[in-house]
Design a protein that fits this description.
Number of domains: 1
Strand order of the largest sheet: 1-3-4-5-2
Largest sheet: 5 strands, antiparallel
Shape: elongated
Strand content: 35-45%
Number of helices: 1
CATH superfamily: Hotdog Thioesterase
Helix content: 10-25%
Order of helices and strands: EHEEEE
CATH class: Alpha Beta
Radius of gyration: 16 Å
Number of strands: 5
CATH topology: Thiol Ester Dehydrase, Chain A
């Protein structure tokens, strides 16, 4: 199985988000600002909770280590897998890879993280997760 870019999709992971980052997203070093990538990590993880939850809030993100920089024009893919479903919380692993703009055959691991979300009701208070049958844990 391959992803849309033609690279092999990591086993057990779903492509949740793919973006190409622009000059407005750069830091003073000329690479993509880490905070932009963190925001996309959170969005990708939240998308992965949708089969199980109606509304989630982010509670925790594990240590994020940037292994490779991301440059303007790189296509960045965010792969997700649900790793745990608790009573009110759900944990999603998000792996990030970049396809180099100038060398579309080159893919590099950027980072990964485990993100914990809490399922909440309309009152924004924790509520039990009831849709567990769709879980891929």
């Amino acid at each position: 199985m391959s992803n849309l870019s033609g690279a092999p999709a990591p086993l057990g992971r779903n492509l949740a988000l793919r973006v190409s980052l622009m000059p407005k997203d750069t830091n003073v070093h000329g690479t993509i600002f880490g905070g932009i990538l963190l925001a996309h990590l959170d969005i990708a993880g939240a998308i992965a909770t949708r089969p199980h939850c109606d509304l989630v809030v982010t509670v925790k993100m594990t240590e994020v280590i940037f292994h490779e920089p991301v440059y303007v024009g790189d296509v960045v893919s965010f792969y997700t897998s649900v790793t745990k479903i608790g009573r009110t919380s759900i944990t999603v692993h998000v792996a990030v890879e970049a396809q180099r703009y100038g060398d579309p055959g080159t893919f590099v691991k950027v980072t990964d993280a485990d993100i914990v979300y809490v399922n909440v009701g309309e009152d924004r208070r924790p509520t039990p997760i009831t849709r567990r049958e769709a879980a891929s844990v």
